[in-house]
Design a protein that fits this description.
200 residues; 27% helix
Length: 200
């Protein structure tokens, strides 16, 4: 059988042509990154085209929404005095908390831990994903001063956590679905208290 469709060697691209095509593709990718992706996703407009195309505003809105959502982690209620806290010993124990979030509602569950205290944790919604952030703040810290350890969207997480400093450590969840979601969270380890924060 004759292979009539095989190309001639002279018809194949040369190494120089392949390098030129690769460089061109790379240049197009960099141009797209600078002109559309950075402005639209992050509000970063290195060469000004994003603002001309209206993309920078889109990215700024996304970043502002993300910052606002992070800032909505409710402040902890008035804690006990340092003297009172130091008199409460941390003990090895297991606790479970259930909370139900209405659509677009956010709540916290926190453990009062000292630096070095450890817990094994698990939480689950039983199905729907919610946005979450594992974070902590020192006792008496301002509402906007906290340390974020992990955040994302999930239907459940489990693992181990060791407190890096004295304070309140735990989760903030927000229900972005259109139906109520019940979250069950358990913790086993060393802590003074483990409870849901009051609704604000």
């Amino acid at each position: 059988m004759k292979n009539a469709n095989l190309p001639n060697v002279g018809d194949l691209p040369t190494l120089r042509q392949l390098n030129r095509a690769t460089a061109l593709a790379f240049g197009v990718a960099v141009a797209l990154l600078a002109t559309t992706i950075l402005p639209a996703e992050y509000g970063v407009d290195p060469i000004g085209t994003g603002r001309l195309l209206g993309l920078t505003r889109m990215g700024e809105v996304k970043q502002a929404e993300h910052a606002a959502e992070t800032a909505t982690v409710p402040a902890t209620t008035a804690p006990a005095s340092p003297a009172a806290r130091s008199s409460v010993p941390a003990t090895a124990q297991t606790a479970e908390v259930k909370i139900t979030l209405q659509p677009d509602e956010g709540r916290e569950v926190k453990a009062d831990m000292r630096a070095g205290d450890r817990i094994a944790y698990a939480w689950s919604t039983g199905g729907p994903e919610v946005r979450f952030e594992l974070h902590g703040e020192e006792h008496d810290a301002p509402a906007d001063k906290y340390t974020s350890y992990e955040k994302g969207s999930s239907a459940g997480e489990k693992g181990d956590f060791q407190a890096p400093f004295d304070g309140m450590h735990g989760w903030y969840w927000r229900n972005r679905t259109t139906a109520p979601v019940t979250i069950t969270v358990t913790a086993t380890g060393t802590f003074r208290s483990f409870a849901a924060k009051p609704k604000t």
